């Protein structure tokens, strides 16, 4: 059942259309991530849902209540929506207790109990109640901001790139913590982020915006392995786009033969592989040049160490083991302990199922 619903929502700024007829249904109690390149309309969408701006046309409904119908809107303070921004936006002159309790009635009998309960929920030690924001780490500040947003029991939580100011290790830990808190509180959330990996790991469903339009919407795994078009494929992660000939559930491409859902199609096509679908193995010396034509050969051009994973640049070679001049270089990911050496010849093995782009590249919503 739809909890947050956007119907043909459009917003223009002069001659620029920031959002163009957005239709979106978000189920109750779920986490949704909005991703897209700069200028795609992500922040505009969040501001419209929060009530900080009004659409030019279209409707926004939350749990059956109409929050916006064109320029007629319910004010932000009456929407029961919590917001956590990138910097937390804590009041620097107030301590943690006052920040969390800012929106609570001062004379409420359960005010103190509510504040300490929220401290426990976001896993902050109660000894921090008297600290000021400058005495907290970035992760602690974000936890306080989340507790403050939860204090008024919002129906929906909006997260505007809340982890981007944190270092990589802390960002991952905070993301997991926020997911746990939101699930325990039973609050639906909408995350805007420029980090595709963050969106895929955080959300139950992901919406991809491009030039103010909804390009694709669905579960993270479905979008990652079956993007609507090559542009979306590259935006959601490293992608290898290849020409192919498809027939009877298989695709023959420059890297070899791989399974694909052809859907009855035959002939020339375009497929996508994720780098992790390409496995490398040493090329046995016993395979003489020209033998075993079914084996796809490649030469390692460079290896970039990246900790647990290495990025390997390779160029395809012919059956004679020679790489043609000007050959395209592909990049794949391999475990560092299995990384080949630059200049080495390897065999390529394609795993999983390749994604077959449709001829018209229709939007899959």
TrEMBL record:
Q: Where is the ABC transporter domain?
A: 4-236
Q: Name one GO molecular function term.
A: ATP binding
Q: Which UniProt keywords are present, listed alphabetically?
A: ATP-binding, Cell inner membrane, Cell membrane, Ion transport, Iron, Iron transport, Membrane, Nucleotide-binding, Translocase, Transport
Q: Which SUPFAM superfamilies match?
A: P-loop containing nucleoside triphosphate hydrolases
Cellular component GO terms, alphabetically? Answer: membrane
| The organism's place on the tree of life at top rank | Bacteria
Keyword set includes Lyase? no
Example of a GO biological process term: quaternary ammonium group transport
Q: Which Pfam family is an annotated match for this chain, by its short name?
A: ABC_tran
Give the matching SMART domains.
AAA
Q: Which family does it belong to?
A: Belongs to the ABC transporter superfamily.
Q: Matching PANTHER family, A to Z? A: PUTRESCINE TRANSPORT ATP-BINDING PROTEIN POTG, SPERMIDINE/PUTRESCINE IMPORT ATP-BINDING PROTEIN POTA
Identification of the protein by name = Fe(3+) ions import ATP-binding protein FbpC
């Amino acid at each position: 059942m739809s909890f947050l619903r956007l119907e043909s929502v459009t917003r223009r700024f002069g001659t620029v259309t920031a959002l163009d007829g957005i239709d979106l249904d978000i189920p109750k109690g779920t986490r949704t991530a909005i991703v897209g390149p700069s200028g795609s309309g992500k922040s505009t969408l969040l501001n419209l849902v929060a009530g900080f701006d009004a659409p030019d046309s279209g409707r926004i409904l939350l749990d059956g209540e109409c929050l916006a119908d064109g320029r007629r809107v319910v004010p932000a303070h009456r929407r029961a929506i919590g917001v956590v921004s990138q910097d937390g936006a804590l009041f620097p002159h107030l301590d943690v207790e006052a920040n969390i309790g800012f929106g609570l009635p001062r004379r409420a009998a359960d005010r103190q109990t509510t504040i300490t309960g929220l401290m426990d929920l976001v896993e902050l030690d109660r000894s921090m109640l008297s600290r000021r924001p400058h005495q907290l780490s970035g992760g602690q500040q974000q936890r306080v901001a989340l507790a403050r947003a939860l204090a008024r029991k919002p129906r929906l939580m909006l997260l505007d790139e809340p982890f981007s100011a944190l270092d990589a290790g802390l960002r991952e830990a905070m993301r997991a913590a926020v997911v746990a808190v939101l699930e325990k509180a039973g609050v639906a959330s909408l995350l805007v982020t420029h980090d595709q990996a963050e969106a895929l790991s955080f959300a139950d469903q992901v919406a991809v915006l491009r030039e103010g339009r909804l390009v694709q919407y669905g579960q993270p795994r479905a979008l990652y392995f079956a993007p609507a078009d090559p542009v979306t494929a590259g935006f959601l992660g490293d992608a290898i786009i290849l020409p192919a000939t498809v027939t009877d559930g298989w695709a023959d491409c420059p890297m070899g033969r791989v399974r694909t859902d052809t859907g009855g199609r035959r002939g020339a096509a375009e497929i996508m592989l994720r780098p992790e679908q390409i496995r490398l193995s040493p090329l046995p010396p016993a395979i003489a040049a020209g033998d075993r034509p079914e084996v796809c050969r490649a030469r390692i051009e460079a290896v970039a160490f990246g900790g647990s994973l290495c990025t390997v640049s390779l160029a395809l070679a012919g059956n004679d083991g020679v790489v043609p001049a000007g050959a395209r270089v592909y990049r794949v990911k391999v475990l560092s302990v299995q990384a080949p050496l630059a200049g080495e010849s390897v065999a390529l093995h394609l795993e999983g199922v390749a994604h077959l782009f449709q001829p018209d590249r229709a939007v899959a919503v």
